[in-house]
Every structure is written in structure tokens, then in C-alpha cells.
Amino acid sequence: MSDVKILAIESSCDETAAAVVVNGRDVRSNIISSQIDLHTLYGGVVPEIASRKHIEQINQVIEEALKVAGMTLDDIDAIGVTYGPGLVGALLVGVAEAKAISFAKGIPLVGVHHIEGHISANYIENKELEPPFGCLVVSGGHTHLVRVADYGKYEILGRTRDDAAGEAFDKVARAIGLGYPGGPKIEKVSHEGNPNAIEFPRAKVAGSEYDFSFSGLKSAVLNYINGCNMKGEEIVREDVAASFQQAVIDVLVGNAKKAIDEFGFKKFAIAGGVASNQTLRKAMEDMCMGQGVTFYHPSPILCTDNAAMIGAAAYYEFLAGTRSGSDLNAVPNLKLGER
Ligand code: KG4
Ligand code: ZN
After folding, report:
1. How far apart are CA 9 and CA 314, in angstroms?
2. Does the beta carbon of 245 sit less than 6 angstroms from any atom of ligand 1?
3. Ligand 1, residues 39, 139, 303, 309: which to mutate, most atoms within 8 A of Cβ?
4. Which of 49, 53, 70, 207 is deepest in the core (most CB within 10 A)?
5. What gap in Å lies between CA 149 and CA 243, rounded to an integer?
6. What is the pLDDT of residues 143-185, one digit of tens each?
7. Nearest residue by C-alpha to atom 19 in ligand 1
């Protein structure tokens, strides 16, 4: 079969991104225009600003992706676009753009699930990785423990009941005055702190052993800070950050280990923005090694929201015959495995 060249578009949150990916794993360009600096002013993503910025950026980002790849739209075999989950106004920009190009140039369109994209980021640098495998997706909006049964076939084993892991990092970072986005900042100061300094809870969800809950941990950190303030005690934020981070990691690694034991995964991957956390990676890698499981993770640039991962996922959907029509719409709460 001849090569399948996919132009991928991602605009679900605060990055406007486009990429050209050949045969799902060969990334010819990966352009990301981040809005983080803009949203930092407000301490988090402002949906209206995100949509407007996507509109301003999307054409340039796509042109750049084609230029870097040395291609034009005439070379493209399919367009992959994130259509959910995410912010509706942000998703709509990418979806409308993809539909317009598809219609104007007669190129097939493939709607992609954002989480399927995060999982598929693992295929890009690990050419030998094939399903089945287990995957932990940890981002600002999601915390999913997934059984990847085959390309495009997912079974959700566990998910967060409240805050996503990245969201907890962002909220705790704000509480200790580190600002947005919190994940990288907590990780940085944690290197100077003691992860055993403060005993924060490792929440278990009664009745569903693979689910997560991070709101109790977040409250415990806030209570600790209030307690210190009331007693006039100094808050060592390096220790708070390191102890919080360790509590999150212990729960993520613990649930992943349980899933590996029960489902007998031989391969385990992590994905999403939080997966660029080096301490989490090391803990996952050590656990996997102890279980005789091969561990996979994408480079940081492929962990954060990007379009190359959407191109990887779109390729396998394209091979499976998935084609979206001009009625493709943004679905803000799209479930994984649902079309
Ligand atoms: O996947 P992503 O870029 O966007 C979503 O789809 O949500 O994830 C962003 C999230 C943010 O909450 C950010 O604080 C977190 O990932 N994050 C991290 C790290 N880098 C980003 N969390 C912990 N450690 C990091 N190094
Ligand atoms: Zn994401």
C-alpha cells in the first residue's frame, strides 16, 4: 500500500496545533502555537480567549505544518481533527477548519478522540509498540486507566471521580503561590523538597479499585496550609510540593500496578501532560521493571497537547475505514471508544 499522509489538527484547549504524519508514526512536522502565556495572566484557561486565539492562529499553523513537511494539500490523503472532548468553542475552530479543507479539496475527514490521540503519541517514538497494552492517561482534564485492546479499541478500567491529576497539580500550585501551569512548577520545586515531610492521603475509591480521587488530597494540602498559617508556622513549599507530588504518584503507580497484575499486561504506557513529570516516569518505570513489563512514554513535546498524536490516531482510524462527514461536530464530553 502506498503511504498515507495525514494532516492533523488539534484545538481542544489552549494549544493551536497542526502536523503532517505519514503512516501514523513518521512525523514530518509538528507545529504548536501555545496560548499559555496569555492564560497565565488569568491563572487558568479562559475559554472565550482560547477560541479567539485559535481562530487567529489556525491558518498560519497549518501552513507552517505543510511547509515544514515539504508538502501541499494536494499531497494529503486524509485530514484528522480532534472533535472532543474539550472546550466546545475551541474544538469548533479546528473542526470547522478541517471540514472546510476537506470539502474544498475533496480530502477524506477523520474525527479523532483527544484521549485516543494522547495514547497514540506512544506509537510515534516506539515503532515496535502495538496493542494490546495498558495505558495511564494523565492530563489537565483527564485521568484514565485504559486497556488498549487493539487500535481504536479501548476499555476504560478506571477514571477520576473528581479532579484530574493535572488539575490537582494546577490547584495546589496556585495555593502555594507557584502560578499556572502548576505541573512543571511543582515538579521543579519538588526537587528541593522532602517527599516524606508531610503525610498527605492516598485516596482509594470504595468499590472501584481502579478509579482515582484527587479532591481530598487537594483539600488536605489546603488544610495543611491553613493550619500552618493559623499556628504561625512556616510553610516550606518545597516540602509541600514534593509531598503532594509523591501522594499523586503513589496512587497513579498503585492503580497501574493493580491493573498490570489483574490484566497481565506485558506493555504499559503513560500519556498526557502530566506524563512528562520525570518523577512519575521514574516511579512507573521502576514498578514496570519489577513486574517484568516494558514501559513506554512519549517525549515531553508529545505528552502535551499536539497534533502529531492526532495524526497517529487518525491513521489507524483511517485504516479501519472511519470517515467523518460534513456533519462532524464538536462533542465537548465525548467518551473514549464512542463515535
Ligand atoms: O495534556 P495536557 O497538555 O492538556 C490537557 O489535555 O489537559 O496537560 C496539561 C496538564 C496541566 O494540568 C499541567 O499542569 C500538567 O499537564 N503538567 C504536569 C507537568 N507538565 C504538565 N504535571 C506534572 N508534572 C509536569 N512536569
Ligand atoms: Zn490533552
Report:
1. 10
2. no
3. 139
4. 53
5. 35
6. 999 999 999 999 999 999 999 999 999 999 999 999 888 999 9
7. 183
Cα-based angle 129, 336, 80 (whole degrees, multiple of 5):
70
Edge-to-edge, what's the strand order for the sheet holding 26-34? 26-34, 15-22, 5-10, 78-84, 109-113
Residues of the chain with pLDDT under 70: 1
> What pTM did the predictor assign?
0.96
Give residue 101 CA to ligand 2 midpoint distance, Å. Answer: 24
- Over the stretch 212-236, which tens digit does the pLDDT of each residue have? 999 999 999 999 999 999 999 999 9
Distance CA 218, CA 201 (A): 10
C-alpha cell recorded at residue 7: 494532516
Domains belonging to the chain, first-starting first, are 5-120+302-319 (3.30.420.40), 132-299 (3.30.420.40)
Grid cell locating 179:
502560578
